[in-house]
Amino acid sequence: DSGVTQTPKHLITATGQRVTLRCSPRSGDLSVYWYQQSLDQGLQFLIQYYNGEERAKGNILERFSAQQFPDLHSELNLSSLELGDSALYFCASSVAKGTRAGDYGYTFGSGTRLTVV
Amino acid sequence: QQQVKQSPQSLIVQKGGISIINCAYENTAFDYFPWYQQFPGKGPALLIAIRPDVSEKKEGRFTISFNKSAKQFSLHIMDSQPGDSATYFCAVTPLSEAAGNKLTFGGGTRVLVKP
Q1: Please, which residues bridge with residue A45 across strands?
Q2: CA distances for B100 relative to A8, A9, A50, A102, angstroms
Q3: Three-state SS across B24-57?
Q4: Among B20, B37, B15, which Cα is nearest to B82's?
Q5: Model confidence at A103, in pLDDT bands (50, 70, 90)?
Q6: A48 and B102: CB-CB below 8 Å?
Q7: Could you read off the pLDDT of B42-63 as tens digits, one per residue?
């Protein structure tokens, strides 16, 4: 157990629907990151939150949004789902805030497998 | 634009052999070069990492070699074991404050160690 908890583990939904993925970071970690892993795109950074505030953004679609709550858990909201959104979505957490990224490294959760049918 | 190119895509090695995975990056403003190991159904897990001020780092059977001038770094798995069968990802992080803490990953290498 990495200490990063993601729910649900699996999600099957129809095109056009909206889903929410949840992540609880490792105890003491202030940063939460969301990544998408697909066969054709590999592991792609979506967004980072640090202590409740958006810190960095990757190639996140406008249909996707995220937030980090005061208790530091985070949710990734995916709306108007398309078949191409089917992927593994990983949450990771770290202590660090920003520039000296490598000082603390990341801990990944086990992911949520999203299937859009 | 692919910032990190990883090769090979897959690798088969006999037990006891050496697995070598290579990564090349384009942007010189990277600060940290980790390798992650991922087993099926699991998230990536940090295996070993190196900073650009050293050319080699060894942890057990895993060694990173780093060539700053060539903008390349590689992972060597010595005495490969069946339990090492997994997908390995190299990654880089930038110095840019605006980039926060994001990791940019290579495409991954699937390693199969045959007993």
Answers
A1: A35
A2: 27, 27, 9, 11
A3: EECCCCEEEEEEEEECCCCCCEEEEEECCCCCEE
A4: B15
A5: low
A6: yes
A7: 999 999 988 888 899 999 999 9
Contact state of B97 with A55 under an 8 Å Cβ cutoff: no
**How far B60 CA sits from the closest chain A CA (Å)?**
19
Q: What H or E segment, with its residue span, contains residue A56?
A: strand A53-57
* pLDDT tens by residue, B10-50: 999 999 999 999 999 987 778 789 999 999 989 999 999 88
Q: What are phi and psi of B99, to 5 degrees?
A: -80, -10
Note which residues in 45-74 of chain B have CB less than 8 A from chain A.
Answer: 45-46, 49, 51
User: Would you call B96 an interface residue with chain A, using a CB distance cutoff of 8 Å?
Assistant: yes
Cβ of residue B83 closer than 8 Å to a chain A Cβ: no
| Contact criterion met (CB < 8 Å) for A108 and B44 | yes
Q: Which tens digits make up the pLDDT trace of B75-115?
A: 999 999 999 999 999 999 876 656 666 888 999 999 999 99
Give the CA angle between residues B58, B64, B69 to the nearest 5°.
130
Shortest distance between the Cα of B15 and any Cα of chain A, in A, equals 28
